[in-house]
Amino acid sequence: MDTAGSHAGSLTARGISAGVRRRERSALAVTNACLARIQAMEPRVRAFLGVHEEEARERAEEIDRRVARGEDPGPLAGVPVAVKDNLALAGHRLTCGSRILADYRSPFTATAVARLLEAGAVVVGKTNLDEFAMGSSCESSAFGPTRNPWSLDQKPGRVPGGSSGGSAAAVASGCVPLALGTDTGGSVRQPAAFCGVVGLQPTWGRVSRWGLVAFASSLDQVGPLTRSVADAALALAVLSGPDGRDATCRERPGGKDLFPFEPPAHLKGWKVGVITELGERDNAGWRQPFEQALDRLRDLGAQVVGVSVPNAPAALAAYQVVASSEASANLARFDGVRYGRREPTQDLRSLYVESRGRGFGSEVKRRILLGTFALAEGCREAYYQRARGVGRALRRQLAAAFERVDVVVTPTTPEAAFGLGERAQQPLAMYRSDRFTTLASLAGVPAVAVPSGLDSEGLPRSLQILGRGWDEGRILAAAGAFERAVGFQCTPAVAGEESRERG
Amino acid sequence: MPLTTDEIDWITDLARLHLTTEERRALPEQLRQIVGFVDQLEGFETDSSDDGDDGWQPTVSGPIEAEDEPAPGLPRRQVLANAPASARGEEPLEGFFVVPEVR
Predict the structure, then answer these.
(1) What is the pTM assigned to this prediction?
(2) What are phi and psi of A490, to 5 degrees?
(3) Predicted ipTM of the assembly
(4) Which end of chain B has fewer surrounding CB within 10 Å, N or C?
């Protein structure tokens, strides 16, 4: 009897794929268990904007037929995956969490999604996000917020983080073992931290962005959220590789050859850098869990050393200027002419103003206005050019640090998940959630968020590990060793839920 | 550099954005705070761009070229499928995006 399918939410992508390929479980059973879990969780979590039940079952049956014929569907055979709704999937809505695209259906599939499908994955639905990926809480979605699975028994509950909050919550709540998110300033890593899952931001240029609705093109990344570091490595191996439709996506070693993945037993001989300039000017809320994480690394044999990255405290401000500037240019295409919401007007200029004004939410408008200001004549040098210069210097300083250490670590976030509605009217307080993640974003280097345990309120905390460009193997190795040492299990208690530990 | 009301009106016009009453009340002060926050960048080291290179290529360098091979684009019908209802013209404007006049 196939009992494994009834526990799809607790299985890893690796485990599901291995079982399907060995005919120990059917892809259909796994998909059905996943869909049942989604049905049970969605009224409370609201991670999904759309669930593709019929299509997912048909796809799973096709996978099973291929296995029965002796074919190998691929390394993600039968794995249910969720996709953030700013990544295109042909024939399906692509809303970006915005009213302006509420009825838009994509005519093509993003390369990253296509690669998962080519590897045998079963896409079960599209997940919620902050509007146009701009946010750190998943509250700016035009379709309502997602709730953090770790606080479903609280009112109003806590945010899952953002902008990939839906994807993080879908993985944390056991609906899928793997979800695609996107990361511009921390939007995979920060929700991973808040939800107690693994979130990987690859090197910029590792994964094709074709089919990802652009927010800030020099920063945007596609990255996986998973329940284990090994699954993140598997996902990246599938996602990596050049794409003729994205000129910035290059062929580099350390992508496809990430799998099979086995973390080292210890970190003896490793040097782990801690940035001395971070934390000089703020409260100590993140210090204790971070020091505990450093102790774990020391127990594994690593030497923790201080490294100087003088521009590290400026990363958030520089990111805000660069990202908003690029967003103001990228979102100019939403003008009511060729697609999206159009307001009835008598002249073309009003068409733009009214369609954009009524289609975009406040956070998107705030960022477009900041970006427009930073790029405007008389301001460009003082704001945009300076921010890019600060970013280039940061990259050089970080590269110098990597001459001395193998990886650099920071807390992923300054705090655990905050309450729903708590920061909705305080943009600066919201942005500060990304003060550690924006480091890697600006430098274009890979970074992984790995759970480090629960705090005194029972909320997940997370360690961020940064590496040199194209060195995902090293950060995943460190993350895998750390994960094994911590022994964290992503099992948020859900009020009224039967125990998942059946005999 | 505190943002003036005139500057906020100017960038709102540049961005072709209509603000709701609530946004008109809250956004100016929020933007001033954010601009005040990013003003801290003045105190940090900057690197100038490479000669003639204004492209942001964090870890990628060198020319990126593809073969000049023609390939089909999206069919017109598919492109128009997502057009707003009032954008779809009838003959002789069928197949075009129709917009209000420029005034």
Answers:
(1) 0.94
(2) -85, 90
(3) 0.89
(4) C
